[in-house]
Design a protein that fits this description.
Length: 334
Amino acid sequence: MEPLPGEWAFRDHLEAAGHVCILKDASDLESSSEIAKLIEAESLEAALALHLYRGGRLLQGHGIPFGIIFGGTDLNEDVNHGEKKKVMGKVLEEARFAVAFTESMKEMAQTQWPHARGKIYVQSQGIVTGPNSAFNWNTFLRQSGINQSADNLHIFLLVCGLRQVKDPLYLVDAFSEWHREEPNVYMVIVGPEVDPVFTREVGARVKRAAGVRLIREMPQGDLHAALKNCFAVVNSSVSEGMSAAILEAMDLEVPVLARNIPGNAAVVKHEVTGLLFSDPQEFVQLAKRLVSDPALEREIVANGREYVRARHSWQAERCTYQNLIRILEGSIQD
């Protein structure tokens, strides 16, 4: 699986400060002993884990200083499992710092683990987009099995890793019903295969669903170009820390329709920077409204762009992580 865009950003920030970074997917490392071998083989001096449970637990007890970046499901889902919560508390005790994307995530973490109160920082995701200028939208549509003129289409793009917490099937039935009424609306689900069993389930459902298409992950430049060309970006997740796809859409001046969950509501203000829906029927109502109301679309796009540029500076994110890594450097010298 390709690393997430945010993981590449963290690596870029640290390498810009002169550090040598090795990027590993926690799902490829099955045990703490594999981490120990990696630390020894690469002479690693410090580590940064994305996700308190999935990444953080692997770093315990190895004697190298590390920091944590909360992912979203660690605070929204894993915290409800007693054993996982206990493990995460131990990880936070050992971590030199932890980063939350929002103030509300920080509050959640401090409520669960008061002992970590002094080491949790807030840094929203920094966003930078770079659409591939050679990307061909008509070719993308044909490859998606959409053989209509792009001029008359409204393409809704749902970008997510194919796993249950992203709930890519949530809108499929309601969207298909809408497509049967209006054949020029399509939803294209784009994303890497994270859970192979669930990916097969998604593929089987989408094959039977009129107006819904599934394509595998794309290079980031092509994905940004697809985002820029689509009518709107959709997020239907059960849980989110902070959705990069939503923020990238705002940066690319594309309207966003997002499921009304805390992680999404932290960045999407209803009817201001995007539209929030609570069920599939409301999604269709809001999507129809967006299609028929160009003034609303223009307002949302303008507000979204201003929000991202004011609150999700890539340069500010770089500065924060470079400063936090100095905490780890101090621990190495001690």
